[in-house]
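Lab channel / #folding
Pinned by the channel admin:
"Please post every new chain as: sequence first, then the structure tokens as a reply. Keep commentary short and put observations after the output so the thread stays searchable."

First post following the new format, from NK:
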Amino acid sequence: MKKILLLVFLSSTLLISGCQKKADNTLASSQHNSTDSLHQTTATSATEKDPDLLINQAKYQQLAEKTGATKAKLIATKEYNVTLTDATWENVTITSDECTIIQIKNYKDNQDKQYEGYVLIHFTITTGDTPVNVQPEKGTLLTNASEKTTGNLAMDEFGGDLAAHKTVAGTAAYPLEKLADPDAVTSIELKFTAKKIDASNSDQKATHDYDFVLNKTR
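Reply from TO:
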């Protein structure tokens, strides 16, 4: 009888000990998860509060969000008063009223491409009697201070196939791999080609090459 009681006692002791260890492990796991959650929350809060981050700039937030460059920081900007109007083809009128050059650091997009700046140009396009395809946001841009670059739709996609008598507007974004100083950019040339939709092969005005040189006054 004593042996049986002793076995029961030992079994109870082991059971209680096992439950205690399980409870300790659960508590430790809970504390670990809470610590991880706290670290994540702290990191998120730090990101949200950093005013220099591109993603926290209302004007450039879309640029960081669409490309995944959440750690990019805004260093400097230069805004220029731009007056540009071209109505030389098929009653299509293209105007630009704003050009901004931004310098950034820690910029790395979803495709691991790194840039030191962007040229941002705002356009308004109004079509005439003919549907056309025109997309300045995919144009080729060259400045005196950087290599040739192509717009990458990091801001707005406003062009493309446009119906007759339609007006669209948006900001085109042209990345710059190197940009030492936004103020060093003194000339900007932008080229893109537009074409009529469903034009006949005999139409000599089916396409039109735009070559914009932005005259900036500070």
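NK: Residues 1-17 have pLDDT under 50 and may be disordered.
TO: also worth noting, Residues 2-49 form the longest helix (48 residues).
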